[in-house]
Amino acid sequence: MAKMNIIFHPRYYNSDYSSDPAASPKRLEGIMKLIESFPDRYAVVMPEAASKEDILRAHGKGHLQRIQRDPLLYELSSLAAGGAIASAEYAFDGTPSFAVIRPPGHHASSDSCWGFCFFNNMSIALLKLFNEKKITSAFVLDFDLHTGDGNLNILGNRTDGFRVDILNPMSAESMEYLNEVEAHMKSLKSIDIFAASAGFDQGIDDWGGLLSEDDYFELGRLMREYSKKLCAGRRFAILEGGYNHSALPGNVDAFCRGFSD
User: Fold this and answer.
1) Which residue range(s) make up the domain with 160?
2) Is this structure's pTM higher than 0.85?
């Protein structure tokens, strides 16, 4: 079995940029401890920061300047966006990738942000691929507990020819949730890449109380199966929410096991 890329930078461990739950040191420590215990399954790859040009495809200059006023926040937010870019680039070239990054990004819109997010990592990554004429369409599965309004605001209803289909599953029962995801994937046509805003706060032991490790494995498997049917298996995921430090590593690993080849 080919190794799956895990995009990670040690600077992500720095939690001094904020006191919010997404900045808690134990979130990433537990994930990476488990990831690094499976060297035959995962290859850890270190990204570079996103450039200002990359960021400005998704955000206005005023928003960029507001984040830049805090040098540490800007460093870590641009590095998180760079992790998403690296994950998308590896995926486009044929290697499934998961970006274990922070801060998260799916609540960041063009000129505003909330919910522990600052730059929209997903939008920055996909718009870079689009700008380089690698893709003209994408499917984004956002399975975080909270709807990614930033993803919708930036990527939805574009007028530049980039078509992005976004699903935020709303079912309140786990089997219905998985059925909703698969039904939507079955309806897709002409997609160039699959991407997941992978929030694990919908976990059965987390805020949402809904999805088990087996369910996260199935979400990963569905991403693998339908990306292979529609876009030669090009797929990547980036970390969003997930706050139960003891449950998060297992949920991430379960998703990745389903997601990888």
Assistant:
1) 4-259
2) yes
